[in-house]
Design goal:
The protein contains one helix and 13 strands. With 209 residues, the protein is mainly beta.
């Protein structure tokens, strides 16, 4: 029998706002990036907890399934180095939400191929790591991961971009396409320019000596 190594791909994603795992509201369609900020028309503001949901899939038909999978969420600010999301990271932090850390995700994204795997411990709201001892991924099956995160306003500026990916055992997961890498763009209100009242000379300035 030929051994086939597992290939885990980061497939579609979808952003939502805080709520229970099976009931929170999505704020964009699948694989659609969002804006975060305080400008009129942004998808979500800085104060709101964001749920990032990603479908992961084994696509090689692995003969030795991946077991006890832990998935570390990472972000890249403006195309820079990827950094782990934790409970104290800058730019993006894991944050307590209406979900429960370590609970199983349900199947809420469309188009998965194979069998949806549960239990999966797919929810994280503590340290940026979803999955664990209950997340095993046989060949050609899939699951979903949900991270509760918040963008830290003081660490970003208008037009900044934040891209996301996750690692499995410190290995970068493959992306089906660049379009399937989640991105947040910051949209902040421009700082108001300082204004001063018009200059009015005093009477003493007008006296001709």
């Amino acid at each position: 029998m030929t051994h086939v190594s597992a290939i885990i791909e980061q497939e579609v994603f979808r952003f939502g706002s805080d709520g229970t795992e099976s009931g929170y509201s999505f704020i964009a369609t699948e694989s659609t990036d969002i804006t975060v900020g305080d400008e009129t028309g942004t998808d979500i503001d800085f104060a709101t907890i964001i749920i990032l949901r990603i479908r992961m899939a084994e696509t090689a038909g692995a003969t030795n399934p991946e077991a006890n999978i832990s998935c570390q969420l990472q972000y890249s600010l403006n195309g820079g180095a990827f950094t782990n999301v934790t409970g104290s990271s800058t730019v993006v932090q894991a944050i307590a939400s209406a979900m429960t850390d370590g609970e199983d995700t349900t199947e809420r994204l469309t188009g998965g191929s194979g069998t949806f795997l549960t239990p999966n411990d797919g929810v994280d709201e503590v340290d940026g790591i979803a999955g664990g001892s209950n997340l095993d991924l046989p060949g050609n099956d899939f699951s979903e991961l949900s991270w509760a995160i918040q963008v830290i306003k003081d660490d970003v500026a208008d037009t900044n971009t934040i891209d996301f990916r996750f690692l499995v055992s410190d290995i970068v997961t493959a992306n089906e396409a660049t379009a399937d890498e989640p991105r947040i763009t910051i949209d902040e209100v421009a700082a108001a320019a300082a204004s001063f009242p018009p200059y009015k000379p005093s009477i003493s300035h007008l006296i001709t000596r």
